[in-house]
Write the structure tokens for this entry.
Amino acid sequence: MTDAGPTLTTERLILRRWRDADREPFARMNADPQVMRHFLRPLAREESDAFVDRIETRFGERGYGLWAVERRADGAFLGMTGLAHQTFEAPFTPCVEVGWRYAAEAWGHGYATEAARESLRFGFEEAGLAEIVSFTPPANAPSIRVMERIGMHRDPADDFDYPNLPAGHPLRLHVLYRLSRERWRNSG
């Protein structure tokens, strides 16, 4: 892993490439049933490490990805936020998704919103993306609030069954939020 590539900075956060030291707190976070309650299941350490490897590979391919998020005040690893290219089968794919995942102790401080706003700025201004989406199960009210705070909009007609979850799974239905570069520019 490398520190090379885009590093983004906000008032309180650093969004950076992954370091080996991030793997342990990330694995702990991914094993937490509370953090993973809107996903299929918590991840084993090997699965979490493989996820970091995929994230880093995608940085190399696209020049952006899911950044490790560090608090500027003390260097603490908080979680991840960034841009992920999605190609699963859905009416709106391929697409770029803004996504986040934080350790429970980092919840409620506005970190996801702050980092997601910076990810959108990078996506529209530096990566030249025309649209960025985000999605989650309807029960994930905290993430939906982040999507709304960063200016994304939902059309219920766009809601979809996430194909990576089995039919009948209670989290299969997902809401889709979108933001175009034009709408983003006009909101500032």
Remarks:
- Residues 45-62 form the longest helix (18 residues).
- DSSP finds five helices and nine strands in the chain.
- The helical segments are 23-31, 45-62, 111-126, 141-149, 181-187.
